[in-house]
Design a protein that fits this description.
Order of helices and strands: HHHH
Bound molecules: zinc ion
Distance between the termini: 10 Å
Number of helices: 4
Shape: globular
């Protein structure tokens, strides 16, 4: 298994907070690349990204701009499930 077993949760939290900017393409190129890389090594964030992309597709835009408690909880769920399955 090539994935890192213990992605930094703090870093994941930052990724989650930046994901709307990432999808809108408003991140600085440097951060965009850092996130690109993170998604390749962190399955839960990658899953979260797909969910956000789907949300964006359905809603046409991401609202609210900041991470809502629901979104945060949803991500925590994804993350927890992934840890348990690993
Ligand atoms: Zn992550």
């Amino acid at each position: 298994m090539r994935f890192r077993r213990t992605p930094s949760h703090i870093w994941c939290q930052q990724v989650v907070e930046m994901v709307s900017d990432y999808l809108e393409g408003t991140l600085p190129a440097r951060d965009q690349r850092r996130l690109d890389h993170h998604f390749t090594i962190c399955p839960p964030c990658s899953i979260y990204l797909s969910q956000m992309r789907e949300t964006l597709r359905l809603a046409g835009k991401l609202v609210p701009e900041d991470l809502s408690p629901e979104m945060e909880q949803e991500f925590t769920e994804v993350y927890r499930r992934w840890r348990e399955e690993s």
